[in-house]
Amino acid sequence: MRFLTAGESHGPVLVAIVEGLPSGLPLTPEDINPWLKKRQEGYGRGRRMVIEADEVEFLSGVRAGRTTGAPLTLAIRNRDYRNWVEIMDPAPGNEPRKRALTAARPGHADLAGGIKYGHKDLRDVLERASARETATRVAVGAVALKLLSFFGVEGVGYVAGMAGVWSRVPFSWELKDRLEASPVRMLDPEAEAEVIRRVDQAKAEGDTLGGVIEARFRGLVAGLGSHVHWDRKLDGRLAQMALSIPAVKGVEIGEAFQNAMKRGSEVHDPIYWEEGRGFYRRTNRAGGLEGGMTNGEELVIRAALKPIATLMKPLPTVDVVTHEAKDAALERSDTTAVPAASVILMALSAIVLAQAYLEKFGGDTLEELVERVERYKERVRAW
Ligand code: EPS
């Protein structure tokens, strides 16, 4: 399964084409829209999220509520486009450019993208660099998640810490629903209250905030990914996907950074075996991955997000046209998008996992795939 996305933040539409899905997968917009909504939520988002109410349209690949096996085209319209028609007009003659942006924002793609593609109007960079693109990828992730549900796999994304405050309530699946009620997708109500206070404060001061997000999956079979070649290692593939989320600058599988400072005897998870259950662990410091493969335990992936690069109290920069010292451009922005990013991390990880299932089990129809996964699970239980 492969996919491409296209679309600008203030263009008419965002699209994704997904190729390689099996036929027969039940799929309606209701499988996708709740994830799009979760991606838009979270305390600290800006006014843009009030304008948008993301909803997916199927332009190809689904008939009568099921995938046909043909490429699936997903489209999400930008409601804000009506305010940007002239600015985003593809026709020649849009000069001088309306709302041209020349004061590159430190931390954003503006400067490097402008140099690389030869744009002095940095809007030509930022419209595509915008995290709005993740709407389409979350839609693809929701499709992946639907596919994974037929293999008994479940995923969740939440905030481990943000605005300098860590959640002290460890994750458990029983508490999962509480996340939906938390405006910062945190399980710890005390931490949540403090985060909200700090987001308000940062907003009032024209500043922005980052955080650490976590995604987990349970029900995965052992043996997804491979040890035999570098580009088939699942941890590497998950890390690449995580680092492709705007503002993500660090990735961790399991307790990687804590583990690095301990002895091997304190880190590696001893192996046990039980009749009817097969191999299992009592600890999961490895985060469900060993040798580039799932080991049958829960997959745990964490990512670090830097604070958003558009500050309402701008940082010093240089105008790319005049080369004069200036304040960075003031483009409408969020104070923080960490809760949304936790949904994105889960959805994008689901894409990598769905790809790994399709590679291992093949099959053109959902039925074939499910049969093969079930047979493998039985074999592994007895192995
Ligand atoms: C973004 C800036 C803001 C965010 C946007 C990402 O958009 P705007 O410039 O229109 O106010 O709201 O995120 C989204 C639109 C989204 O859907 O996530 C940026 O510069 O990256």
UniProtKB/TrEMBL annotation:
Reported cofactor(s): FMNH2
Protein name listed in UniProt: Chorismate synthase
Reported function: This reaction introduces a second double bond into the aromatic ring system.
Assigned EC number: 4.2.3.5
Enzyme class: lyase
Family: Belongs to the chorismate synthase family.
Native species: Thermus filiformis
Family annotation (PANTHER family): CHORISMATE SYNTHASE
Assembly description: Homotetramer.
Keywords: Amino-acid biosynthesis, Aromatic amino acid biosynthesis, FAD, Flavoprotein, FMN, Lyase, NADP
One Pfam family here: Chorismate_synt
Superkingdom in the source lineage: Bacteria
The keyword Acetylation is annotated on this UniProt entry: no
Leader sequence residues: none
Residues involved in NADP(+) binding: 39, 45
One GO-annotated biological process of the protein: aromatic amino acid family biosynthetic process
Co-factor binding details: Reduced FMN (FMNH(2)).
Binding residue positions for FMN: 128-130, 291, 306-310, 332
Secreted keyword on record: no
Taxon lineage: Bacteria, Thermotogati, Deinococcota, Deinococci, Thermales
Gene Ontology MF, one: FMN binding
GO cellular component, one term: cytosol
Pathway listed: Metabolic intermediate biosynthesis; chorismate biosynthesis; chorismate from D-erythrose 4-phosphate and phosphoenolpyruvate: step 7/7
Catalytic activity: 5-O-(1-carboxyvinyl)-3-phosphoshikimate = chorismate + phosphate
